[in-house]
Every structure is written in structure tokens, then in C-alpha cells.
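Section 5: illustrative case.
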């Protein structure tokens, strides 16, 4: 685990201790309701790859360790509304509080204001966070293999299934990809950012995609900025993308999203 990842997870562990004091796991379980709406996330990704149609998960975040502050006036639901209007297929919301200045409340806020499925993007290291994700109306959670053992990953996937939550299994290199394949979960996100140097290499997704069979759906994550980037991925059979900074920094989000979503024949 890289230093920044370890630092974030240690802070997350301390934060969870305090959260559990305020609201125990058993108390949280009582908040589960049949009224909690589940929107299809996994099926949309599978369909996009099968039909070779570009699908973007639009990220909503205020800042990151690599980019610093991205948005000064940060209103997550307003960003999500623009994303939906522009053709984005799903929303990713950073809920980590210390390094990304996120908030778990943003999940239900965005869910209420849009019709799109919502991914909770955070550093999930405890079952409590999965239950929390369900209560706050996420449809999908991100599981980062760099911070989990195989046993934890299996347990978290099973628990997410119980709660009717989809998962994205995030990997960064070939070793992690081999671990992900053994988990036998169909949705794999490949982060193009090196977690030690924070440098981005778009070829990371393309190279690792060669190791995947059609049983898996790949999401390319990080560093995607232009329609040329998308074309490069499309030519390698990649149609699902998680995009954040290039959208968030754009003064014309509708225009750039329209350009990125455009499919061309090869």
C-alpha cells in the first residue's frame, strides 16, 4: 500500500471508531427500509460494453490529493443535474471527508435530485461502511483491492449482494487484476493513476484489458480528458469510463460530455 493510501485508510479507521460510537452497527441496521430505491448500475455497464456504446460515470468531488481544490463553490447536486442533462449514465460521489472534503449526505442529496444510479466512492475497509452506503441510498460501492485482503473483498462483495448493492472492484496493476479475476465479480475498474507517484498512464487500462475475457466488464478510470482518449479506448474494446477532473474543471460540461460520449465506427 502506498503512503498516501495508508495515511487515508488510517484516518478512515479513526473516523469509523468515532462514527460507531455515535451510531452502532445494530442501530444502523434498523434504518434499512424497503422504501430505499435501487437503481441498476451493474446492468447499465454490462449493456454499454455489449452494445459498444460509450457510458460515463461522472465523478463529483471538491478536491483530491493529486489535484488539490477542483471546485471552490461546491454544490454536488447541481453538478449531478448538469451531468444527467448532458447524457452521463451514472454519478460517482466522493464521500471521504479528510482528503477529498466529501460527505456521505451527498449520496442521498444527489439520489433525490436525479434519476441516475449513484456510486459511493470512498475507502471502504469495514462492513459498517457498506451498510452505511445502503442507508444513504448508494446503488454501488467501490472496493479498492490495494487496501483489502482477498478474504475482506469476498466478504464485502457477499454483504453488498445481501444489501442489493452493486460493486466495482478497483485494481491498479497486473497483480491486483489477477486477484480480482479470482474473486469472480464481473465489474472491474482499472485506475490509470499510479498510487505511489500519482502519475497517469492511459495505457494501463488498455494493457490490462488484454488479460480479461468477455465475462468481465472493464471501467477505465483517471486521466481521461479528450474524445481522442475515448477513441483510443474504444479501439481496444473499452466503452465504460469513470471521469472526474476534466468534467469538473470544464466551463462547458455539456459540450465536453457530448464530445466524449460520441461513438465512432472503427
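Designed sequence:
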Amino acid at each position: 500500500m502506498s503512503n498516501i493510501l495508508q495515511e487515508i485508510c488510517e484516518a478512515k479507521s479513526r473516523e469509523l471508531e468515532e462514527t460507531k460510537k455515535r451510531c452502532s452497527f445494530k442501530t444502523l441496521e434498523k434504518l434499512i427500509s424497503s422504501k430505499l430505491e435501487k437503481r441498476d448500475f451493474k446492468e447499465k455497464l454490462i449493456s454499454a460494453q455489449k452494445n459498444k456504446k460509450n457510458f460515463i460515470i461522472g465523478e463529483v468531488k471538491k478536491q483530491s490529493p493529486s489535484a488539490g481544490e477542483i471546485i471552490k463553490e461546491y454544490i454536488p447536486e447541481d453538478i449531478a443535474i448538469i451531468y444527467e442533462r448532458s447524457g452521463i449514465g451514472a454519478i460517482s460521489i466522493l464521500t471521504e471527508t479528510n482528503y477529498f472534503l466529501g460527505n456521505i449526505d451527498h449520496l442521498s442529496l444527489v439520489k433525490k435530485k436525479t434519476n441516475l444510479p449513484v456510486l459511493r466512492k470512498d475507502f471502504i475497509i469495514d462492513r459498517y461502511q457498506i451498510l452505511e452506503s445502503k442507508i444513504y441510498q448508494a446503488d454501488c460501492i467501490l472496493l479498492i483491492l490495494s487496501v483489502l485482503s482477498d478474504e475482506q473483498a469476498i466478504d464485502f462483495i457477499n454483504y453488498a449482494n445481501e444489501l442489493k448493492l452493486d460493486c466495482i472492484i478497483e485494481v491498479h496493476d497486473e497483480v491486483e487484476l489477477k486477484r480480482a479475476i479470482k474473486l469472480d465479480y464481473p465489474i472491474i475498474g482499472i485506475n490509470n493513476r499510479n498510487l505511489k507517484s500519482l502519475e497517469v498512464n492511459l495505457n494501463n487500462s488498455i494493457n490490462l484489458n488484454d488479460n480479461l475475457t468477455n465475462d468481465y466488464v472493464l471501467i477505465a478510470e483517471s486521466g481521461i480528458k479528450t474524445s481522442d482518449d475515448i477513441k483510443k479506448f474504444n479501439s481496444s474494446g473499452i466503452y465504460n469510463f469513470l471521469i472526474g477532473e476534466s468534467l469538473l474543471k470544464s466551463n462547458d460540461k455539456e459540450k465536453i460530455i457530448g464530445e466524449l460520449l460520441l461513438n465512432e465506427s472503427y
